[in-house]
Each structure stands twice: as structure tokens, then as C-alpha cells.
Design goal:
By secondary structure, the chain is mainly α. The protein has two domains: 69 residues; 62 residues, no CATH class. Helix content is 79%, strand content 0%. The radius of gyration is 20 Å and the shape is extended. The two termini are 16 Å apart.
Length: 131
């Protein structure tokens, strides 16, 4: 919570200033990246991600929490989705062959540490962090 109106105005300015650039520049970037025949699908996918992602996140998040899973499972699902999309992109980029990872041991350790950290932090009370 903000202490006064000045703090609210300043933080809203920075939120709007930093949040407006991706929305206003996306059309030009997609126009530079994609050929005119492929541009329609790219713009539709981007528009769905910007507008539809907010709606779907509420629905999926509510379904996850209502099914006796705790709020931390929403973070687990996001992390798993991001990992799967990364591995799918590298798989397709390598002509549908498995990609040998030079950093695989480091990635395995990192995934265990991150998942363990989320698990431990989810069970701690908020007073531990907020003082």
C-alpha cells in the first residue's frame, strides 16, 4: 500500500510507461520479422497472447486452486510450460532430433534447486519475509 497520492501517481506512471512499449512496438516488429503471407497468423497469435492470456490465466489459475492444489502449483505449471516450449523449439530447430545439451548437468541441478526453493518458500509464513 502506498503512503500517499504522490507514490501512487509515480508508480502508475512508471507502470504505464514501461508497459506501453511492448504493445505499441509489437506490430512493427512482427511486420519486420514475418513475410506478408505469414504475418496474419503471427499477429493473431500475438493478439491472443496479449488479450487471451489474461483471461485464460484467471480461468486456469482458479481451476488449479479450486482443485485442492495450493497457489504454488500455478507457478509450477508456468515453469513447466516454459520448459516444454523451450525444448520443443530446440527439437524442431535441430530437424526433429534430440539436442545434446552441453550444459545438461548444470540445468538439472538448477531445476532441482529452483523447484526445491519454491517448495520451501511456499510453506513459510509471510512474516518471515516481511519482517
Amino acid at each position: 500500500m502506498a503512503k500517499d497520492i504522490q507514490t501512487i501517481i509515480i508508480t502508475r506512471f512508471f507502470a504505464g510507461f514501461s508497459g506501453s512499449a511492448p504493445i505499441t512496438n509489437t506490430g512493427g516488429v512482427l511486420g519486420d520479422i514475418w513475410a506478408p503471407t505469414q504475418r496474419r497468423a503471427a499477429i493473431v497469435a500475438c493478439a491472443f497472447a496479449v488479450a487471451g492470456g489474461r483471461v485464460l490465466s484467471l480461468i486456469v489459475g482458479g481451476a488449479v486452486v479450486q482443485n485442492y492444489l495450493r497457489w504454488c502449483w500455478t507457478e509450477y505449471l508456468i515453469g513447466n510450460t516454459n520448459n516444454q516450449s523451450y525444448y520443443h523449439r530446440t527439437f524442431v530447430a535441430n530437424r526433429n532430433k534430440p539436442v545434446p545439451q552441453a550444459r545438461l548437468p548444470l540445468m538439472m541441478v538448477g531445476s532441482i534447486v529452483i523447484a526445491g526453493g519454491l517448495f520451501l518458500l511456499a510453506g513459510l509464513p509471510a512474516k518471515t519475509f516481511l519482517g
